Amino acid sequence: MLHYLTTLSLCLCKTEYHFIEENKSWYEAQRYCREKYTDLAKVFDMTDMSRLRNSAQNQGEAWIGLNNAGGNRMWHWSLPGVKYIQNDSSWNQSGRADSEAYGNCVRKRDKLADVSCNHPTWFICYDDNKTYYLIEELKNWTQAQSYCRSHYTDLASGLDQVDGEELTMMKKKRDPSNAWIGLFKDSWRWSDGNDSSFRYWDMQLFNDKQSSKTCAMTLLNRSGKWSSDECGKEKPFFCYDDKLILIKENKTWEEALNYCENNYKGLVSITNPEVQGRVQEKAKNADSPYVWIGLSYKCTLGLWLWVSDYVVCYDKWATEGKTEGCDMSVGVDRGGQHEWFSRRNNETYNFICSKQ
């Protein structure tokens, strides 16, 4: 019997947060979470942030899994899930005005320039309808990000957005001298190695130049916004437990299916972009060029179906990556855009199981 996408399926594979009401240093908390769950809490977007806050009754401070080990600053896009790819032709490294200081945030004129985040200027928001909004208010970068997230989706993020024809024409029509976009750099890293660019700093309390305060905490009495403190101080903390498991063994699709059903819930079903994002995180660490997921072609029905019997309501097929056949299932590409490819069932790859 076929099932259609339900509210339950939308919740598949979400990270579970656990609030631990014991006072520990950041490193003690990290060790505790790794022993009993997966790691100290990571946060992917505002939905995760809301879920993390709702998992605690405490209204004080609590460690999360972000710390500053003093490494090189890395570029990130503000919009969660958009990966920064270097493109030197998009930059004008000498494009700062004489009055502008070098900094960690980016404004766009014709090209990009990295300037101080404190400079007030116009900014460009983006929403899920792929519409851009030039906001003619003077705000610093953090204020602009907060405004876009409150009223739209985020600051314009990704070179395909900021170099796109629609945004270029809008800027020419309105002719701002420059405007903030959603590109910034920092040296903060997640405990589990995740590359999530999501940040939720409380800029009234957070100072990135305080070299002794290198571990991040969420301030539950300030809407969950973040600040930092000395890592040796003792606080409650949040752990996360991931519902996806990468199995680094090469098996055929049927062998992978049996393994997941015998040891967990089953091969993962990807029913929305959030689950796709979590699969991508796992796929990066695979030892094979693809990872099996729970999607296969059913000849008797002439349909692609998930092992959970859901029809495909969300997909990320590669161009020309979809081949229908009785012995075909789907592997997610380990690199590139982590798109879906039809692969023969007798090929052997790593695979991803779901724990629920």
From TrEMBL:
SMART domains: CLECT. PANTHER family: C-TYPE LECTIN DOMAIN FAMILY 20 MEMBER A-RELATED, C-TYPE LECTIN DOMAIN FAMILY 4 MEMBER K-LIKE-RELATED. CDD domains: CLECT (cd00037). Residues 17-126, 127-240, 239-354 form the C-type lectin domain. Gene3D superfamilies: Mannose-Binding Protein A, subunit A. InterPro entries: C-type_lectin-like, C-type_lectin-like/link_sf, CTDL_fold. This is C-type lectin domain-containing protein. The lineage of its organism: Eukaryota, Metazoa, Chordata, Craniata, Vertebrata. Pfam families: Lectin_C.
